[in-house]
């Protein structure tokens, strides 16, 4: 078989919101062979697409390797419904543009994984993609939290994973690791690999493990019942259009997303913005921002906010995901007050 006719090795990197999927992909990109081109397809629950920006900004730091990494975003829901068509369009463009030697797919932490696997292994892609192991990142602390263990998506991600990766383990001990391994060993079908790691760092060799097509979702009917994320058009039309930013909010599956994209002329006061964002009680906050002290990424899960310096950014993006509806108009006013 010619090189052009070879199937493209493809992996799904899944896990719940905030578990570190994007960080894990960054760690894998560091291990990418210099002579290979990789394509990354990123899907988010939110509307404005920050993970793709984070990955693109990261690849810019990889010097020559960055020239052989192509990132494509499909924002606004889950790959299986936002729908099959946007996913196929994004994936087809990625394959056509990048002609990748490998593809990594990061679906939203609230997507329906069984349907995504079915679509990628179906007749449309069966001669194009070699779908390998599905890799699921898990925060072991979530296994003791009913908010997660009773969530259908969380359960299905673990059930459908070929490889289970315990992440965010920096504050955990040997007993926690033993408990996680005991939990993993009870899962059927048996996992191909179970890993305990920090900062999403695991070997590139994991990508070559095979997919077990016998794994099944525990909640097949949920795919037919779930609500799609949608825009609050009515609320937004009541407000004057502000030339400094675009707002893009949505809700679905019991969550609310609030997003803003500030144009290239807007610069934040870093201290004022940090003072505003750090106390917010939300399950996920992500941002890429321009400030008077340089450009930063912001990554917050359950109230723990990390600011990391990055290279130059064209735009500032902020996205918040919450289980409760937020007073977003007041929050928007406060964001604008944080501008210089």
Automatic annotation (TrEMBL):
Q: What are the CobW/HypB/UreG nucleotide-binding domain coordinates in residue numbering?
A: 9-179
What name is this protein filed under?
Answer: GTP-binding protein
A GO cellular component annotation in the UniProt record = cytoplasm
* UniProt-listed PANTHER family: COBW-RELATED (PTHR13748), ZINC CHAPERONE YEIR (PTHR13748:SF46)
> Gene3D superfamilies from the entry?
P-loop containing nucleotide triphosphate hydrolases (3.40.50.300)
What species is given as this protein's source?
Answer: Moritella marina ATCC 15381
A Pfam family of the record is cobW
Mark the transmembrane ranges: none
What InterPro entries does the record point to?
CobW/HypB/UreG_nucleotide-bd (IPR003495), P-loop_NTPase (IPR027417), Zinc-reg_GTPase_activator (IPR051316)
């Amino acid at each position: 078989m010619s090189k052009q006719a070879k199937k493209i090795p493809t992996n799904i990197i899944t896990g719940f919101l905030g578990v570190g999927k994007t960080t894990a992909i960054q760690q894998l990109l560091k291990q990418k062979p210099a002579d290979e081109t990789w394509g990354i397809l990123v899907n988010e629950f939110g509307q404005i697409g920050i993970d793709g920006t984070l990955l693109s900004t990261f690849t810019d730091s990889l010097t020559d390797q960055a020239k052989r990494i192509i990132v494509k975003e499909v924002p606004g829901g889950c790959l299986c419904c936002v729908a099959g068509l946007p996913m196929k369009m994004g994936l087809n463009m990625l394959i056509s543009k990048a002609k990748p030697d490998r593809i990594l797919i990061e679906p939203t932490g609230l997507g329906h994984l069984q349907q995504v696997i079915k679509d990628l292994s179906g007749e449309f892609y069966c001669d194009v993609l070699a779908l390998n192991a599905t890799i699921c990142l898990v925060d072991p602390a979530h296994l003791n939290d009913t908010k997660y263990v009773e969530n259908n998506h969380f359960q299905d991600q673990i059930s459908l994973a070929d490889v289970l990766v315990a992440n965010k383990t920096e504050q955990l001990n040997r007993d926690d690791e033993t408990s996680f391994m005991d939990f993993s060993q009870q899962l059927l079908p048996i996992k191909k690999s179970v890993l305990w790691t920090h900062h999403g760092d695991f070997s590139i060799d994991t990508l070559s493990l095979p997919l077990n097509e016998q794994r099944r979702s525990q909640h097949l009917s949920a795919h037919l019942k779930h609500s799609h994320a949608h825009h609050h058009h009515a609320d937004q039309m009541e407000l004057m259009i502000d030339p400094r930013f675009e707002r893009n909010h949505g809700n679905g599956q019991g969550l609310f997303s609030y997003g803003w994209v500030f144009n290239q002329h807007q610069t934040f006061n870093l201290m004022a913005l940090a003072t505003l964002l750090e106390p917010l009680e939300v399950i996920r906050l992500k941002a890429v921002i321009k400030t008077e002290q340089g450009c930063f990424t912001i990554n917050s899960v359950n109230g723990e906010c990390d600011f990391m310096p990055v290279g130059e950014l064209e735009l500032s993006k902020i996205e918040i995901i919450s289980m409760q509806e937020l007073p977003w108009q007041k929050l928007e006013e406060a964001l604008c007050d944080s501008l210089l």
